[in-house]
Amino acid sequence: MVSRRGLLGGAAVAGVASVAGGTLRPAAALAEPLDTPLTPVDAPHLAQAELMVRYQRMLAAGLLADGLVGHWPLDGAGADISGYGHDVAPGAGATWTKLRAGGELSLDGTSGAYAQVPGRVVNTLASFTVSAWVRLAETASLANMYTAVSQDGTTSRFLLQYDPAYGWAFKLRRPDESGFVVARTATNTAQLGVWTHLTGVYDAAANTIQLYVGGQPAGGAAVTFPAWDAAAGFNIGRALFGGAYVNRFNGAIDDVRAYGRALTAAEAALVGGYTARQNNRYYTEGSSSVTWGSPADPTTWMSLARCSSFLTWVLKRACPWATDAYFRTWFDDAIPEAADYRQAFADGTGGPHLRRITRVADLRPGDLIAIDYRGTVSGNTGHIVMVRSVKGTYSGGMNFSGETQYAVEIVDCTSDAHGMYGKGSYDLYPDTRVVEDDLRKTNFEGVGIGHMMFYASDATGEFSRYRWSVNSGSTNTHSVADRPIAAARVC
């Protein structure tokens, strides 16, 4: 489980001084160490793998600091980490919950369902952008209007909201409440219990508004009345109309941001998570491609690969010996499959730079573990991972007589993250790609850091079976008789 605050904290550690021309601020907040710090570079291939993960995590966090005037992760506190000190104060109907990684602010739809900054956050006479992750509660009614973010004067100047007449919407209102303009989705696609990212952009120069849903353009409109200043309060979870607060949110809101400028379409895609899902994919549609990009621009970092192709690219980047010629000589392929790696590790035929490791307890950071699926999974020969650390033995479940279970932190590329958020011992053995319990398929895929459970025979210490994650039951636990395992040290 990785909070957005933790994801953002990786920027300074990874050496990013600026993103898209904007200085990262505040330094104190963004310099917080991640919960998975980089491994020492005595395993240079592991360092390169981790670096790719680090930048993909920045993309998953929607890292964009240029123009921020307010940023509320809402991960258990109302602090504004933009550096402007616009902390929000929750009302009585607001509670801190953990429906997804890092937590969020849940609102019960009552008069106390809000969090407020008393005063102006964005200058509504000029261009601005607001964004938020929102989730309507399963008990909410799609016949009601719910406002996620607004800023008030005599009435709410703008509203980022759900409107049953339109679906997801971004509105600008006249100061006398005589009318409004709306950027909206073409059809009402809102669903209860589903996390959705909304971004509303006001471009004062073009005199237009634009709504983005999930980082993609959803609708726009021309503004037909003059701008006016709203300085009475910035609200999360409600709007002001007719002198009273209305549209109280019933659900959860997370990662609210305000920018003092109009974001571009590419920036809205970044903030809304779309870029992350395009740049980090478990890729089966053609040749793999892995790009270590510019430290100043996370959007230039890309991994379109499967497990074996990703780790092969990592070796080629980090190790002078790891050339196409080497892999063709020893594996008959410039990018071997996972099953090919497993066979070569077991037989000692992977060449002079891959030395077999037989005992689970002997695993070290940077070692490779390969599994052969033996034709049991269509289109997939197996799986291969890189060891970050052996966390120690584990006896909390799925134990087998005569075997010792080890929790191993790994780097890999997968379409199926390791673990289920909030279930069992997941918090002890998390995965950076997991957002929630994935019932709605919101988890990320591609490269990341997770945990697998490997078993050793008490008699020999050698691999005896594995589980995909600490949450896996019998259907995702396999013995070496069914799926052989072999490991090797890169040297």
TrEMBL record:
The keyword Disulfide bond applies. It comes from Micromonospora mirobrigensis. Residues 126-266 form the LamG-like jellyroll fold domain. Keywords: Disulfide bond, Lectin, Signal. This is Concanavalin A-like lectin/glucanases superfamily protein. GO terms for biological process: immune response. SUPFAM superfamilies: Concanavalin A-like lectins/glucanases (SSF49899). The keyword Signal applies.
